[in-house]
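Figure 2 data, in text form.
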Amino acid sequence: MPGNPSKRRHAARKRKLLEQQMGGQKRMRQSIQVDIPQEAFITALKMES
């Protein structure tokens, strides 16, 4: 039985918390809204055409 069991539990908990945190950051990035002035948006559309 290598290692201290309490340290293994601590490492597993830390890994779990990091995974949850990364998931939260991913969800946050997906829901970010940016305000773009209408004139800038129309100008960008005209540049594409």
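Caption note: The longest helix spans residues 5-30.
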